[in-house]
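Entry 14. Ran structure prediction on the chain below.
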Amino acid sequence: MAKISSPPRGLLMLLSIGLLTGLATAPGCGEEAKKSGLFGPWVATAELSYVVTGGNTATSALSFGTSFTRKWTNDTLLFKSYVMKSNATTTTRTARGTETDFEVLEQSITRKVAENYLLAGQYDRRISKKLLGQAGVSWDRNRFAGIDDRLLATLGFGYAWVERSRTQVKTSVGMTYTLRQYVGLDWESFGGMRFSVTAEQKLFESSSFSSIFVLDDNLKDTPDWRFDWANSVTATLSKSLALKVSLRTLYAHQPALQGMPLYDLLGDPTGLTVFVPLKRLDTFLTTSIVINF
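Output, structure tokens:
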């Protein structure tokens, strides 16, 4: 199926950034924290992971994430990004010649086996000691899961159930509006609902555990729900460096459809295409170095 042209993505992103910028400059954001660090009042972190194998098989995997946070007395502004790519090289070896005199021919093909992008921003406004007002926008792409582009805006409330020095537990609920384009298909839009849980627990003096669970449901088609669950353990190496092991689980109850060429019982192509659902579950296990600025 031919891909139909999409609406102006630049305009959508500008509107999203404008929403967050307007919220960040609203009354109440005037009291700034004391400037410190490389990025002044912003607290920044970067996570980097890169794995390469060679020899009889060749693979490479890169993941890179950043987060920028700025806090005022009652306001918090967060921007984050994430990129993950993985390539695999398959080498086919054949021998040409006679049984006693031959040469070995090699043909290598490198292909992308995983790719994931995320850009997101969120603004939190403290309404009371426990209650927060929240607004955010995000864009993500995961073509191997059938998602060509997905732009999501959310507006809701959060509640801090536990706020201790070693333990924090927060939940949030809100309404969402999603623009989504599956690979090879046209854009679609729908309203939805989001529920999330964030928990952090300090394990020892230099290590901690965190868990972030986000559930999104499509109110236009309620069986079309999905969740993103990230669990991680972080060990501090120094003031600026830490080692982090994380497991991210992506689940789509109604996964995207993948077009496949149809062959007859004799193995000959029919010229037809059938659509089958992709797998519902994707998992990403990464070990990364965390740099705190």
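The mean pLDDT is 86. Will compare against last week's run tomorrow.
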